[in-house]
Each structure stands twice: as C-alpha cells, then as structure tokens.
Amino acid sequence: KEEAEEEAEEEAVTEEEEEAEEVVSSLLLEWRKVLHLGACSLSLELSGAGVQSKLPVGCLEIQLSLLAPHPLPAPLAPPAPPLHEAGAVEAQLKAERAAELDAERRFFSYAKAWWSDYVSSSASLGRRPVKLFALSELGVQRPVTCFVRPLDSGRLLESAAQAAHFVSLLRWERAMPVGGTDVWQSMGATLARRAGEAEELAVLLCSLLLGFGLEAYVAVGKDEAGSRVWVMSAAEQGSFTFWDPASGARYHHAPCSPAASPYLSIGCAFNHESFYANLQEDDALSSSSLALGEPLLWRAIDPALLRRLTPLPAPRLTAPASQDGRVGREVALEAQLRRRLEAHRASLDLATSWDTALESTLGPALHSYELEAQCGATLGAPEFKLAVKRCTPTGHTFRGYPAHFTHARPAAMARHLATAAGAAGVLQCKAPRARLALRLRTFAYPDGVTSAWLLLACSAALE
Questions:
Q1: How many CA atoms lie within 13 A of 63 on its CB side?
Q2: Selection from 224, 226, 214 nearest residue 250 by Cα
Q3: I want to staple 158 with a disulfide (CB 3.0 to 4.6 A). Which of 44, 149, 327, 367 is the partner?
Q4: 321-461 domain in CATH 3.40.50.300?
Q5: 395: phi then psi, degrees, rounded to nearest 5
Q6: Mind listing the pLDDT tens digit for each residue in 130-154?
Q7: How confident is the model at residue 78 (pLDDT cuts 50, 70, 90)?
Q8: CATH number attached to the domain at 122-308
C-alpha cells in the first residue's frame, strides 16, 4: 500500500512538473488614445506568438479610463486632468510611428552594408556566431539590441549575484525552431512563463545587471557542444566576469589569465546601446582580447542608429506576498526622510536635487552591510564599486555615508544625519551640480525587532 501511495505521489509530481505555462499571444497596446476623451473601449484581435503571428487565436475587449492622480471626495477633488484634442493625439502617435519606421529602415539598410563589409574582411568571419536580428514573439524581425533594456528590480532583488540566482531558477528549455525559425520571446514573456531558452535567459540577466549599474553584455559564442550564450560584465583593469544564465555560476576572465569557463570562443557581444563583432584572427577566448572599444579587434555598429530604435517594453518584477508590504513601507519611509532632508538643506540655503539612477545602485551595499553584521562576510563589494563608478559622471566625485538604526522612525533618522559629523560632507554639500541619493532597507526580526540601514550619497563636481 505504501509503495502504491509513493508511486501515485511521484506520478502527481511528474504531471505537475509537466504543466508549463505558455504564451498564447502577445501584443503592444497604445494606451494614449484615452487622452482624448478620458475613456475609451478597444477591441483587439489576438494573434499567435512568433511564427504563428499570422494566425488569430482570439479577441480582447479593453476599457480604459483616465483617473485623477489622487482620488478625493467630490468637494475636495482636484479639477479633471486636461484632455488633449483628438487630432493632437493622433498626430503625435503618427509622428512617432513614422520615426520608428524610418529608424528601422535606416538600420536595416546600414546593417546589410555593415555585414557585407564585416564578412569581406576574412572568409572565416562569415562562419562565426554573429547574430544581428531575431524574430520576436510579435512575429517581427528585430535587432537583438532591442531585446535588452536596463531592468530595475525595484528592491525585489538585493544584488547582481542574487539576480543571477533568480534567473537560474527559471526553467531552461531548448525549443526546436518551427520551420527553421528561432523565436526570441520578450522579457515579459520569459517571466510570465518562468522559463526561457538560453538566449532569453541571457537577455533577462543582462538587463538585470544593467539595472544594477553594471556594464553588461550578452555574449554569443561556442562551447564544446556548439553555440552558447552567456552574459559578461566589465570588471577592473580590463577583466570581465562571465555569468551563466542557466546555472548562476560566475567565472573571472582576466586578459593575462583566461577564465576556466565552459566557453571556448566568442563571436559577438551586445546590450541595449552597443553591438560588437569579433574581428580577431582567432575567436578563441584564450587568445581573444575583450577590449571592445578597439576598432581593429571589434567591429562596432553605429551607436547613434541603435539609440534611435524602439526597444521592446521592459516588464516590472512582481513582488511576492512576503515582500510586498516591506517594499511599500521602505518607499514611504524614504519619501518622509527625503522631505526632512530637503527641509534641512533649505534652512542652509541649499537646493536639493535627487539622482534616481545613483539611488538604484545603492541597494546592494545595504544588503551587504546586514550580511556582514550577521556573519562577518561581505558580498558584492566589487560590483557595487563598479556600479557607483559607472553612475558617477566624469569630473565628479562620489561620497557616501552609511548609518544603522534599530528602528524605522524617519524623524530620528533625519536628526542623526543632520548632526553626525560623518554625514555633514554629504548632506551639506555645496558643490555646483551636486545631486543627492538615498536608499533605505529594513530587515524584520522576531518580536518586532528591526534592523534598518540607510546610505546617503552625493555626486558632485570636483572643486
């Protein structure tokens, strides 16, 4: 009987594992049509994904309404937001679409000439894994750079290393191309399915690393089995960190001591704003230089043309129930703390400007501080330093002041920052074009005990 129950349990688990969510259809919705009347109804025909994009699979009725930013009772409600003339909205959408089509036509024409020039340099270059375009789930060929976009994890992932682990938890799969056509699904579809092919997992991981402020690229090359895709991020002194999207493993690759990684050769590397193809006589990683900015070693695509292309939409990560409340509380605490710090600087006749891009790089440091307090070990310090360096403009300096509290009271935190000697150089910065950044992270413990870390930082021009 016990054996029969165990077999039945195993069959149930197997059946559950085999049930995978699939993307039936994907479409881009132009919501700005609601700006004319404040409400509208849309009837949309749903087409299949990828190579099945010409096949209808259903229809969707959507009703859109434009709401005031802060709904209040009628007597206190602000006036309705101004609505735009239908002609103005349509003209704007038409102009944007025309600009998109023009940018795509220019890029396709440029890419054709670029590829011809690239392969004419050497007969072996045409056989290298250099991929310029991929079929999206919308059924349209898009430059591969359009699939990548900096993705802010919104406090849901603590560090680049945790982002790599998160991506490795998604199911890796290798779908057989239908009719020989390989389809790359968007990051939104990858997250919705919690699964993806190697290219899709690499695109997601690269986008997350870019969101943490790292200089990251999707790398296309080969291993012992054939084609291979991974992510690489720039480190110090010309070295790189290789990230395996499927396993989360990391490998350090230095110019003088190549990484002991499964990757054997590299054909190209790209992100949302750059594309490089390997020009070197030998594309083996053991002998190739990864100095992507060297035009004699790597053939780049004009970045101005890449910037004009419209990327695929970037999704927002969904918070698990256990973190949803924590994130909301931290955002509210930061808002209160910012107002108090702005008031303090105003009392010193100092204006305050916040750098949201710099703020997004501070989170990993707070997580590292708590880990160090727990177990005496620091994690992610090299990636944090690289992200801060990349976010600090040339000719500027970065200053930061970390503080730890056993409560989550913004008034007490602000008083500490206003009086602490170490914080004065940041909070009272008078340098021209100074921009402040603030990030707070709370850690809950049993019986209402709280550990709170904040990092107040400033980026200012060198005097």
A1: 1
A2: 214
A3: 367
A4: no
A5: 85, 5
A6: 999 999 988 889 999 999 999 999 8
A7: low
A8: 3.10.620
